[in-house]
């Protein structure tokens, strides 16, 4: 049921610097409901009046349209630019999609699950311990804070949970058994799509790009901290790996690159 008391206005548009992303500019009074609904649909706050939707599955127009519908249901006035409306109205699908038997809605379900994995990793809720590449795609093992450990298969909109385990040691041991010496600590490098999404979220619509960190020199590694394996944060990959190796006498760490 609409709430006539709200006086919020939301302007939805393509991001001027990152066309895949969508910006929401919020004005008026009583904007709490508008911000909450936009957050539910994947928008992230980047400025006092600006939120951005940047995904890894190119489905921003679809979710912007859903957000607009939810906002209007609550009495929020929504304006959608012609450029974004064109994206909403355009039907498309992935070329050479590997799960060709799925219909468009089912493909979106797969993408939504992959987006959730991406968001969980980005927020630190899912800590990635190890990763590898099998020649076709990226594989990883990680643990949800206070939850299960998982093996992940795939990248971007195709990443999914392949196996689930009750504890990190079991998941790490099986991952090491399957992939042996080719595993690497921590998460895999960000894909091009992940980098573009992160860049969009690092900007304020219409403003300059946030200054990226200087990556010309490798930063000093933080000192390792001893923590329970389930509580390791994204900076504890080396500690997690060492703890696992110490508990598994038959395994040892082997570097396949020279140490300078």
Write structural notes for this entry.
With 260 residues, the protein is α+β, with helices and mostly antiparallel strands. The protein folds into two domains: 7-89, Alpha-Beta Plaits (2-Layer Sandwich), CATH 3.30.70; 104-208 and 217-247, no CATH class. 32% of the residues lie in helices and 21% in strands. It contains seven helices and ten strands. The strands form two sheets. A five-stranded mixed beta sheet has the order 3-4-2-1-5. Strands 9-8-7-6-10 form a five-stranded antiparallel beta sheet, with helices on both faces. Helix 1 (32-40) packs antiparallel against helix 2 (60-73) and helix 2 (60-73) packs across helix 3 (82-89). The model is unreliable at 205-235 and 251-260 (pLDDT under 50).
| Main sheet: strand order | 3-4-2-1-5
Low-confidence residue ranges: 205-235, 251-260
Coarse morphology? elongated
**Cα-based radius of gyration, to the nearest Å:** 21 Å
Cα-to-Cα separation, first versus last residue: 66 Å
Number of strands: 10
What is the averaged pLDDT score? 82
Biggest beta-sheet profile: 5 strands, mixed
Amount of helix:
25-40%
Quickly count the domains: 2
Q: How many helices does DSSP assign?
A: 7
What sequence of helices (H) and strands (E) makes up the elements? EEHEEHEHHEEEEHEHH
